[in-house]
User: Which sequence fits this backbone?
């Protein structure tokens, strides 16, 4: 049996990955609302997951507002 990656031992990082398992893509506000994390902490954890390739982050401007969305990688 394979052990859980230590990176996923963080409750918030595991929550992010778990949420993304149930949707094709989630925006930052959806993740923030469902994890109850602060914006700063969520940003840091998203960056860590992205850096090791667990998730893909897409940033765009919609209207005049920035939109960050995340999805799991293969």
Assistant:
């Amino acid at each position: 049996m394979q052990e859980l990656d230590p990176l996923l031992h963080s409750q918030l990082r595991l929550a992010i990955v778990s949420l993304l398992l149930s949707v094709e893509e989630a925006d930052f506000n959806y993740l923030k609302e469902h994890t109850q994390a602060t914006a700063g902490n969520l940003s840091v954890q998203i960056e860590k997951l992205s850096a090791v390739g667990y998730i893909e982050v897409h940033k765009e401007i919609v209207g005049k507002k920035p939109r960050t969305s995340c999805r799991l990688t293969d």
The chain has a mean pLDDT of 94.
